[in-house]
């Protein structure tokens, strides 16, 4: 029985290569390819694939967000997410929105194919290193408030603007930021944002 | 990306640009007051003023003015630890005592300014300043003195105190401004490095992933369908070739729009940083020389800002006979400089110049100056 799959990847070079590899397997069939995160849900509704193979980092919305969307509309097929970043922060959110697998894009073809088969058979396929890292570092140390503030800093807001937007005093905002910085063990706001992004907490 | 501390000049070694004018004015005011104080100490005919008192008075007056100037310089540089404060408090105390010993009120303004400067914001400062003045003027009111003196001295002292305080705060603000401008310039450099590093990471990442997938596909097809396998291997090769081309383009650095543009950008940057930038560029340069000059100027200025504390920078582009000479010279080069300043940017440009028969020298030339100099053979025809 053929496994019909949808590939979501924004870099054409890589998307074509994925398709080329998967086409070499007899019972795999690539029925659609999209290059934006927000094109996944419509494509899934139209083609009803058995498996969605999606890049996490895409324009429009992330692969994780798209997974949430298709689960919300009742998609019951499998979702296998691929990432270029080895940080384990996104792993938690990926699994919680209903992905069945989370692998690195640099996985060998053989492992990718066996991961697809495992996921189709009902198992969860995780890159072992990412999983080990997730267990080691634990969930995000940052509170929702700290994340909100970091997001605003990343968007270029000043401390005073953040204070106004969140109805806090600028002293409080500064406190949250320095707590966040010491939790992440960095010495600047910029590094805090970088590290939080790396780990997938932001 | 944090940059290594070695590239940073310690803040107190940099000349504090922009504040020299303000600090000189302030020093003149203090100097004038000191002079007046000293003269009046020497020429005062009051019998109560014994020679011993005069001498103590002289010493304390000089101590007060030197101490104030030292405090001011510390504050402007951002140093205000407990030693500074202890010194300051001592000075104020000595200043007030001096009035009782040698009747010299001239420096009362300076002592009050000292009080104002070492205390943090708030009512306390003004109370302390008022107390200093009152303590100093107490002598005026206890001993017989003219009404003019009783009114004049406190008022003039207050005036002097506020003037000195304002000048110091102005100098402090100017220093902060200069420091943040410097930081901005550094961030610009870091930004560019970060961008290149990110682009590189993306490029290599996707080239490797795509190539690997194609080869895996070829392996799968090898036994079943040789034609398709071959097609996949061809694709793999194309992917790698494309990646190589993009890599070369990336590491060559941003394309310059021309020397005129680069000179304008450099002028703007130097103006913001208080560096005097002069340029002497011959008109009607061949396109190739124009491009080289633009790239060299950008690279040399970037390095200059990273490693030196320049006040002057000069660009010279001259055509002589069959060659062109481009040189960028700056001062403020720290003494420990050697060819460690030949980073990848300069090295890259040098190898490119070598390839077309030119030369590039980049080295300190003594007296704290640094020069980047290139010779290019003038092309016999315009390069497209």
Tell me the structural class of chain B: alpha+beta
Average pLDDT of chain A, rounded to a whole number, is 90
Low-confidence runs of at least 5 consecutive residues of chain B: 1-14
Strand proportion of chain B, as a percent range, falls in: 5-15%
Which structural class fits the helix and strand makeup of chain A?
alpha/beta
Cα distance spanning the termini of chain B? 38 Å
Helix content of chain B: 55-70%
Unreliable residue runs of chain A: none
Continuous helix count of chain B: 10
Quaternary status of these chains?
A: heterodimer
Radius of gyration of chain B: 33 Å
Quick check: average pLDDT of chain B? 82
Largest sheet of chain B: 5 strands, mixed
Largest interface: A-B, 19 and 21 residues
From the alpha carbons, calculate the radius of gyration of chain A and give it in angstroms: 19 Å
Shape of chain A: elongated
Give a written overview of the molecule:
- The complex is a heterodimer of chains A (202) and B (384).
- Chain A is α/β, with parallel strands linked by helices and 202 residues long.
- Chain A has 10 helices and 6 strands.
- Chain B is α+β, with helices and mostly antiparallel strands.
- A 5-stranded mixed beta sheet of chain B has the order 1-2-3-5-4.
- In chain B, a hairpin with a 2-residue loop joins β4 (359-366) and β5.
- In chain B, α2 (51-76) runs parallel beside α4 (108-118), α3 (82-102) runs parallel beside α5 and α5 (123-142) packs antiparallel against α6 (147-224).
- The longest helix of chain B has 78 residues, at 147-224.
- In chain B, 30% of the residues are buried.
- Chain A binds chain B through residues 11, 13-14, 16-18, 20-21, 23-25, 84, 105-106, 108-110, 187, 191, and chain B through 2, 205-214, 216-217, 219-221, 228, 232, 235, 239, 242.
């Amino acid at each position: 029985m053929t496994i019909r799959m949808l590939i979501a990847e924004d870099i054409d070079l890589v998307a074509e290569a994925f398709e080329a590899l998967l086409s070499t397997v007899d019972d795999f069939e690539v029925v659609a390819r999209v290059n934006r995160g927000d094109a996944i849900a419509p494509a899934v509704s139209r083609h009803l694939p058995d498996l969605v193979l999606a890049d996490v980092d895409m324009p429009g919305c992330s692969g994780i967000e798209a997974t949430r969307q298709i689960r919300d509309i009742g998609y019951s097929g499998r979702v296998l997410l691929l990432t270029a970043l080895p940080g384990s922060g996104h792993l938690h959110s990926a699994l919680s929105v209903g992905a069945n697998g989370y692998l690195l894009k640099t996985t060998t073809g053989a492992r990718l194919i066996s991961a697809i088969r495992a996921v189709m058979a009902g198992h969860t396929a995780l890159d072992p290193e990412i999983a080990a890292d997730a267990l080691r570092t634990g969930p995000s140390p940052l509170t929702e408030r700290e994340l909100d503030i970091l997001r605003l800093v990343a968007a270029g807001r000043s401390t005073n603007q953040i204070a106004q937007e969140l109805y806090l005093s600028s002293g409080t905002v500064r406190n949250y930021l320095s707590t966040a910085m010491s939790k992440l063990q960095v010495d600047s706001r910029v590094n805090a944002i970088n590290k939080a992004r790396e780990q997938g907490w932001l | 990306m944090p940059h290594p501390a070695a590239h940073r000049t310690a803040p107190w070694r940099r000349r504090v640009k922009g504040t020299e004018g303000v600090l000189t004015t302030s020093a003149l005011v203090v100097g004038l007051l000191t002079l007046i104080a000293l003269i009046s100490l020497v020429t005062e005919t009051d019998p109560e003023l014994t020679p011993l008192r005069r001498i103590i008075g002289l010493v304390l007056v000089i101590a007060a003015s030197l101490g104030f100037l030292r405090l001011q310089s510390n504050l402007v540089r951002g140093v205000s630890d407990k030693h500074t404060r202890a010194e300051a408090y001592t000075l104020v105390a000595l200043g007030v005592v001096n009035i009782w010993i040698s009747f010299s009120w001239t420096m009362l303004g300076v002592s009050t300014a000292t009080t104002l400067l070492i205390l943090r914001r708030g009512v306390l400062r003004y109370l302390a300043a008022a107390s200093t003045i009152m303590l100093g003027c107490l002598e005026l009111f206890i001993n017989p003195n003219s009404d003019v003196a009783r009114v004049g001295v406190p008022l003039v002292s207050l005036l002097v105190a506020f003037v000195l305080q304002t000048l110091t705060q102005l100098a402090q603000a100017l220093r902060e401004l200069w420091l943040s401008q410097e930081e901005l310039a550094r961030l610009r450099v870091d930004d560019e490095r970060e961008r290149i590093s990110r682009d590189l990471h993306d490029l290599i990442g996707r080239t490797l992933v795509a190539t690997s997938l194609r080869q895996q596909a070829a392996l799968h097809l090898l036994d079943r369908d040789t034609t398709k396998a071959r097609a996949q291997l061809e694709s793999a090769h194309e992917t790698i070739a494309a990646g190589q081309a993009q890599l070369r383009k990336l590491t060559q650095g941003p394309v310059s729009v021309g020397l005129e543009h680069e000179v304008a950008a450099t002028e703007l940057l130097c103006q913001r940083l208080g560096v005097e930038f002069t340029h002497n560029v011959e008109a009607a340069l061949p396109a190739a020389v124009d491009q080289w000059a633009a790239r060299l100027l950008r690279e040399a200025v970037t390095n200059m800002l990273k490693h030196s504390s320049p006040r002057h920078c000069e660009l010279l582009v001259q055509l002589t006979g069959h060659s062109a000479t481009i040189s960028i010279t700056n001062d403020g080069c720290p003494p420990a400089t050697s060819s460690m300043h030949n980073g990848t940017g300069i090295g890259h440009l040098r190898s490119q110049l070598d390839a077309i028969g030119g030369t590039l020298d980049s080295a300190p030339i003594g007296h704290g100056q640094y020069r980047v100099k290139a010779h290019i053979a003038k092309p016999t025809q315009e390069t497209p």
